[in-house]
Amino acid sequence: MPKPDEKPRPSAPGADSAAGSGGPVPPEPxxxxxxxTGRYLVLLCQDKAAEAVKTLxxxxxxxxxxxxxxxxxxxxxxxxxxxxAIVFERIGVALVxxxxxxxxxxxxxxxxxxxxxxxxxxERRVYAIAGKRDVGIPAPVAPGDASLATYLAGYRDxxxxxxxxxxxxDGKAGAAGQAAATxxxxxxxxxxxTRSAVSSYTGKGIRLAVLDTGLDLEHPDFAGRGIVSRSxxxxxxxxDGNGHGTHCAGIAGGPAAPGRPPRYGVAGExxxxxxxxxxxxxxxxxxxxLDGINWAVxxxxxxxxxxxxxxxxxxxxxxxxxxxxxxxxxAAGTVIIAAAGNDSRRPEFIAPVSHPANCPSILxxxxxxxxxxxxxxxxxxxxxxxxxxxxxxxxxxxTSSWPAPQMYNTISGTSMATPFVSGIAALHAQADPAARGxxxxxxxxQNTRRLALPSRDVGAGLIQAP
Length: 466
Prior knowledge:
- Helix content is 28%, strand content 18%.
- The chain has 466 residues and is an alpha/beta fold.
- It folds into two domains: 34-123, Alpha-Beta Plaits, CATH 3.30.70; 146-169 and 184-463, 3-Layer(aba) Sandwich (Rossmann fold), CATH 3.40.50.200.
- The strands form four sheets. The chain has a seven-stranded parallel sheet, sandwiched between helices. The chain has a six-stranded mixed sheet with strand order 2-3-4-1-5-9, sandwiched between helices. Strands 14-15 form a two-stranded antiparallel ribbon.
- A hairpin with a 4-residue loop joins strand 3 (84-88) and strand 4.
- Helix 7 packs parallel to helix 10 and helix 10 crosses helix 11.
- Residues 1-34, 69-76 and 130-180 have low confidence and may be disordered.
């Protein structure tokens, strides 16, 4: 039974919560760039904020910089002192750059009973779940780099072929499966499966933050929306040079009548807050994500959508700092929703839910296909203390917006499932003005379609619009 300050984890009737019985197949080893950045996250006691900042300055011997100064213009980050601490005041976290001996002092403060510094963790790199793992997403290619373009096209085609083969098992694809496919003339299969197409709500008046690779700000489908945006990536503007962010923002908040059918967006009148926390190459770090969350909470966004994260190492639990940030966000009326991860290779191997979606107070989203079967890449809830899947959403062959000149694209991943849940959260928030924070989170989980799949894989079931 969940603790009072934790979100409930409903299970589908008859669901089997045990891990898969197939032989373990280790995940692909993480590259050297997937580990720690060398910087540190420090959780500050919000009731003793002034004391915490003073202690941080004295123990780390660094200059304190407010988040407003550090992120009002991401280019300023390159001008910050080599040793400094950027304090995200609203969520009570600092990103610290300091020498090794000072790092030891910080750890001693956190474990030694210092009441103003609650935790210290290495900052991790995060990816667009995980950029290369999102099925069908090619990395940005420099103009004229034909050899790289050819390689990426082959990689994309190979991965797509693997997905098609996985979906074809048990005879669910092929000619018969295609004949029974959903008619997407007017709206995508995901919009239909989640009942977004028949909802009378549009997300009007609800602030929805999408923290990703940015947005194609000149995309005609978003014209006249009055979008609020900010880049948290040094040297890069909000303009999306990757595509991942534009695709996710389109699913969450694309218009009901796009320039070219079918309809692909859930909450077409939500107030979009676009935070670029991942670079055009699809990568970023915890500090940028926390900066974006801090900004979203400051702007009273009711929902934060994050199709990003990093795979866990064996035995690695959830981040205490991200968990506390999520709790503080809920207390402020903000629900954080994140992608469960694309690291499984079902049925042989099921990977655990990624960071930071594995935090108990962050809503973790799995992906299902058009037959409402778990996507072969979707991570599973294998850890009881955090790490559960909470809800599922469409995540295979999902059409949405894409930067010009392509304008639209069809791709797959838990990255795509996440903004479905975020957009529908906006509909629920509009439908019930009293539903904010943890109340909204529970409302989302209570309004699902039960699936005949393990709760390990789909949590409460398929997300449904009000």
